[in-house]
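Q: My labmate handed me this sequence with no annotations at all. I'd like to see what the chain might look like in three dimensions before we decide whether it's worth expressing. Could you predict it?
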Amino acid sequence: MRVTIAAIDPRHDGDIEPALTQFAQEPSGGLVIVPNPFNSRNDGAIAAVAARLRLPAIYPFGLNAQRGGLISYGFDTIEQQRGAAVYVDRILKGEKPGDLPVQAPTKYQLIINLKTAKALGLEVPMHLQQIADEVIE
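A: Here is what I predict for the chain of 137 residues:
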């Protein structure tokens, strides 16, 4: 597929802009924002710099696409929160946390922001729009 992967790992808030600016010097680049505390805390700054540099980015949470990110693909956070509430209820009713099975997400969401795609000069293929859980126009 001739894809080169380059890790960008800013450690401080002030590292975001220089790191993304340097990354944007490479042609045809795009960002995959991984879920971690730093990225979650700085998601607005990352999205703003990425938009200014015209870098397409895929984010881990639906809220990122709803706030202007190009695409989000990740687990359904509402489903995860409901599952956590069920576990809290079971624990409060006397079950031991160590006896509860570990559960992984079962529902994932693809959200595409066509406004952002247009601003970036990108065309999202219709088949991708059709399989998306949500398309923001």
